[in-house]
Amino acid sequence: GINTDKYVSFVATNNYNAGVLAARQLAALLEFEGQIAVVKMVPGSASTTQREKGFEETMAREFSEIQVLAEQYCMSDRARALTVSENMLTAHPNLDGLFASGEPATEGAAKALRSRNLVGKVKLLGFDFSENIDADLKDGVIDALVVQDPFNIGYEAVKTVIAAMKGQTPEKRIDSPATIVTLDTLSDPK
């Protein structure tokens, strides 16, 4: 979104709520206790900052037995995500989980788990989807993902534009909810 209130409607994923969803899923994967680290995207990015905020606030509010030991930005770069993930895994060798807040962060964190032979030992909850992420989910490197529905976002946006062109007043904010994907739900058409 842009920093103005002068728009007809905004159709997107509520990224704060997606972060809440991510926190609850990772907590469940960890059986509600453990130590984690967060691979963040870019300071100031509205969407990923909201994801990270939703995640962090939910962890602090709902899961007191889970400690967030480290957070580092990958600057939306896969290679840097690999490096920061490896650095956090080195600094905190007893980590139980990682949260990666975007596609490059997810791919880099997955590579770090592979390179450190920590697949199955450290739970990884990522965000977004790509061919590499699909392969890592199928291989068990990634335990769960939070994904958006870009088809629905586009569909709702077109409906909203048409409604506005017909003189109707669409809702100011239309949420296209994120969902959790695991290996068990990957083949679900939804």
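The above is record 1. Record 2 follows with the same two-line structure.
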Amino acid sequence: PVFMPDTKAAAAKNENGEWVLSFNEAHSNPAGEDPDNFIVHHYNITITDESGKKVLKNTFIDDYFVIDEDDTADFRIGSDTLVSGKKYTASIVAVSAYHIKSEEIKLEFTAE
């Protein structure tokens, strides 16, 4: 799987007080290769704080069992996971059903 060069990611707090990490989904058929080997099964998400300490590490399944027309993935983070005013880095890697990994995308953000 690959993320397109213009992939965007953002972190925001929703009306329930949860943090939501939103990003453009990875594509499953890079360069016309066999699409069955590149179906995006899940995303590995790691969030670290300013000192590099891991705050969260999780696996997130999006659109593998139920495919929708939306090309954005939304990963919910508990409201007590991040501290307001602190800076964080989110790392996202798409993983195929055959454990083939994409390049990672990163998002740096401040919890507000």
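The mean pLDDT is 86.
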